[in-house]
Specification:
heterodimer; A: Rossmann fold; 2 domains; five-stranded parallel sheet; B: 1095 residues; alpha/beta; 18 strands; flat; binds adenosine-5'-diphosphate; binds magnesium ion
Amino acid sequence: MTALTTNAPGFKQIAVEDFRLTEEPFYLPIRDEVELFETAYADSVPVLLKGPTGAGKTRFVEYMSWRLHNKGGHGGHEEGVPLITVACHEDLTASDLVGRYLLEGDETRWIDGPVTRAVKNGAICYLDEVVEARKDTTVLIHPLTDYRRLLPVEKRGELLEAADGFLLVMSYNPGYQSAIKDLKHSTRQRFIAIEFDYPPRDQEAIIIERESLVDAATAMELAKLAEKVRNLKEHGLGEGVSTRLLVYAGKLIHGGISRRRACQVSIVWALTDDREVQRSIEEVVASIFDD
Amino acid sequence: MSIADDLTARYAADLRGFGAALPDDFATGARAMSAHLSDEELEAWAKAGIELANSSLRAWEAAAEYFRASADIVERLGTEGIARWAAQATELSSRSSLIAAQFLKSTPEALAVLQPEDLEEWAQQGDRLCRGNWKSIALAQLYFQISPSLFRSLSLPSVGRLVDVIDQLTERSYELATTALEGSGQIFASLSGHDREPFLRFARAVTRASWADTRLYFERGPKLIERIEAPQRAAFLDLAGRVTTEVGRQGFPLFSDAAEALGGMATEEHGAYIAFASKIATGSPTAAMEYLKSAPFVATRLNPDQRSLWEQEGLEILAVEHNPEGAEAYFRLESTRAEERMRALSSRVELSSINSMLRMYAKALSGEPVSVHSAEDLVERGIGWVTESAASTEGSSIYLPPYVATFPEQEANFQVYKVFTTHQTGRMEFGSFDYAWDMPGAHVASTGPRREVAAALRRQEQGIAAPKAEAVTAVQRLFNCFDDRNLIAGLFTVVEDTRVDALVSREYGGIRRWLKRLQDHEIGRRPKVEEMALRQAFVENLLRASLGQAEAIRWPIMLREYMTDGIAALRMVEQAGATVQDSAEVAGALYDIATSIPNVRMPNPDGKFDFEGASQEMMDVLPSMPGGGEGGPDMPGNQQEMAFENPPQPDFRGDFKPELVQLMAKLKLQQEGGADAGGSLTKEQLMELLQNSVELSISEWAEGDLDQSLGMFLDNLQKEAGTPAGDKKGEKKDGDASADGGKGEGPDEGELPVEVTWFYYDEWDFRAGDYRPRWTRVGERVSAEGDRDFYEETLRKHHGLVMETRKQFEMMRPESFKKIKRLEDGDELDTDLAIEFHVDKKAGAGPSARIYNRRNKIERDVAVAFLLDMSASTDEEIEKQKVKHSGKDDDDDDNFDGDPRRYFQWLAARRAKALVEPPKRIIDLEKESTVLIVEALEAIGDSYGIYGFSGYGRDNVEFHVIKDLDEQMSERVERRISKIEPIRSTRMGPALRHTIHKLDEYDAKVKILILVSDGRPQDHGYGRDRTEKEYAVHDTKQALVEAKRVGITPFLITVDKEGHDYLKQMCDDIGYEVVDDIESLPRRLPTLYRHLAAD
Ligand SMILES: Nc1ncnc2c1ncn2[C@@H]1O[C@H](COP(=O)(O)OP(=O)(O)O)[C@@H](O)[C@H]1O
Ligand SMILES: [Mg+2]
């Protein structure tokens, strides 16, 4: 990493726009998402990543930012494409995104919000779980998705034009399926959508193995388990088990926890509080693992 | 002249005037007695006789007996004894000469057993029975008549006790007393010595507690105790006696049931049972008998060690918790505690307790919406499955035996269920029913078409009729290629099960160990190969190999190659990647081998083909397909071939019926009108399939009536196909009614027979302080439809009210709160925004003054269920109720000041009114109120369900769905409302529980349950007897508490003004309202609802 500033001993702080991945993140392409993203990026087409939680969306964006950087950089970024991530939530305000004035002694000082920084620095701006944000906040980004790529900074009466290399990426989990928490069509229709789903058994096994360092056979069994548990979606479970949880299970197993116990804490209990469903999944675990 | 003749002459005058024979009797007696007596003694004897004859009107008859019997007993009694005897007779004669006569007559016989000094006591016993009336005289007479034979089995004091019993009975019925006495001789003769006294003791207890049962006891008692271990009978009878003394009339039925139960148990255990029963009898006699009654059932679940733990718990309820009612319920097995304890202790596993877990498990494994049912259900459906003990699947559901007790440990039995389920799921998961015509397998090429041509040629050559119609399914077409369908079907089953087991082992490492254990267990249950004919033995050996038990093979060494080839072929499907296509090909290859083996019985006379153990070669053989062609070794000589029969299937694999499953899938497709259904099937085709299929056992069909049976069968199949896959009518556990498939099955246009779905619920026994598990059965059905008039009429009649409530309800719309942020004005200040505002202002950046928040009402999320009492009591007319309540009797002319004219005027007016407007009943008001509330709820947009309940007995609580929670309001609902009518009883608890279950399943933030009734829970068996209300009231209250526990707000509305309202007292912490003016219910209900749903 570059441009570290040290404020206090043992405390490292880094400006968001300076954040770069220095190591290649592991990402296993499942379909044509890499190609799609690269092409979209080249043409500044905003991207919406759709899919359940823990399916690799965040990892994918990290990977893409690294990859674009290492390809020699689009738009002349010598240091590649920075990635600025905003985790969205209900109380997120426009100021949180664009920037605000701060009091400094008797003075006030303006500081840029993450979106503004991304716009200025030609970074990939990743709005994670965008449905969580209020609709009137989301509207703010609309002009950025136009061909003009502008960001209005109301409080300063400015209009910022996005630097080369800037790209707006959002993630969205359609699983919640609630009428209130849905994207506005006017927002949605400004993005191309890449669908993410949990990878097929073989590929998921590779991911688990790589990420958790468990042996290949166990990784395969975990992936099989995932497939079975996902069969219960809508039949007792709201969501299937995520790749993320499988990786956790793999890590515990790698760390010496028995396989059944590892699955119990990282899969069964993480997924549901319903005793009956828990019991059923535990039995599936017990059928697959004999210890 | 002898002294005797002299006496005869002397007393001739005294003897005259009585019966003609008396002088002769006297003469004969006197002559015989003279040999034993001195003259004076003879004189005294004669005098005593004459006195006796004169003692009462017909006493001469007694005297005749006296004269006749004396000589036989004089030696035993001696002179003095005879005199005492005569005195006793005279005493009796003062009561009745008949009694005296019988006494005298029976004396010789009695003395065969009694001592002379016993006569006094004997006479008194008879005397006791005599009360002066003729019935008692007859009874006493009977007593003297039969008691000599009684003495052969009972001692004199015992007979005395019997007399007590008889005497007691006479207070109620002489007839019964007489019958009992008459029978007693035989009864006591039949009882063994040790049992007589205890039998009598208990007889006394029964007679005292419930005299009428004495007859039953005398009739059945000996038989009942006969089956109890001899040394234990006394203890048992005494226990029963103690119980009877305490519980009274229930005593005998308890005894009889307990004896019956005990009699069915192994005799050597009786002692232990009775000992424990006696132990609890001190705390609760009833519990002791209930315990014995339950013993046979308990014994099927628990071994002796487990049983004593189970007993201990019950004893604790009694001795430590001092709760006899609880102990009774416990030992009667009507308490949740008893059942849970048993379940925990028992190694046996019940399907019902793990059904829904297994269902989810099967869904996870197969990815299909599978359901799990008891195998009994599948048999009942009459679509070709017949074994209840084995697992099976018809492609969309899995059927399992109702319980498993294969192994001594519970865990192992549970694992058995898992293996069963995994294997059946495996058939779906691994495509056992997906066989397609002429598709190559992963390891073997398809030979289908070749075989088909060969079969056609063969049939032509041999003049066998070809199939009459084109095959319906791929499996059928495959089987058509073989002459022996039974054989090919059996082989296909073995091979496919081998493949599935291999896959299960490979895919589910955790199951492997248990599968192995079950396979080992199955091997122990296989029929003996040595007793089979050769071809059959071949298939059996394959099956053993497929169970991973090649070492259990028994086969003639001379024919080794056949077996080795067979096993090698079987191993083909154990390889990774093998599909059902491979299985079909391997089965075909095995068929070829099998048909080259004659089905003759071993051993051969020359011993050449004797069975031997498996060779190493067989066990280690590698997968390969047989080469075919080259002539094998010599076959055993030309014996008569036997008919081929497939060896039985191991339970965990169960029936495999691919032909039927494929047929059903096809029928289903057709009924769904799929364009790809491939044209419709002809009746001919179907008949052809069914007639030939070996998956139906022909014995099921009445002989000669084949066509009709097949037709019926086809009907069943089509019915099956017509209903969607997954959960169907099958039994549902409470709280578990179908996570899937439960909905959207509403009958089409209402012409279908009522489809009832059953649910089971516990019931609260307040005495035991425990639930009675699965005590009630609720049948849910869609309510019948009437015409719409009622609905429209009600709307018209209450037009004003309808408009008013609608408006009120519309105003309620947004009621739940949500914070709205960033407002220019509001009821709270947002600190963050306020600070920002100030900083912005300082920076001079046109700040936004939107710094307020407001709590706003938005979206409602309320679900309400209305439960209407449809019991017969709601049929009561309101007029009548009012009248009764006012406590006045209108027919009483006081009301009309004695003026009959006024009365007639009143009557005429009332009649006229009744003509125009038939009298209103509670149910009518319930209906009207329903209409109004529906209108109101439609305005507000809350989810609501309307249900009615009634029924009779705990097994049949009717639950009528008028409108389900997730159903749209429709004309049909209107029709159902008009059809609401009073039916039978009111078992509120289960109806409430079912409604709670429905609400609980429904997704809403606020849930309300409103029960509208007349306040009288009442049903057959809903309480100790007809008049008891407490039980019903407590159960109802408990159900309401259960509602609160799951976050439902219950509310009760009763329309009862007569103080019939038994619920009120109980419902202190539950919303409650008695609607004062009954007719205001329609107005009141919406208002009430508004208040309820507002908070
Ligand atoms: N295709 C993939 N390649 C590599 N890792 C993956 C992939 N998909 C999922 N993962 C793993 O799953 C975890 C969770 O993924 P993440 O990107 O955080 O999910 P999301 O953002 O969709 O909720 C990652 O940390 C990574 O370990
Ligand atoms: Mg993420």
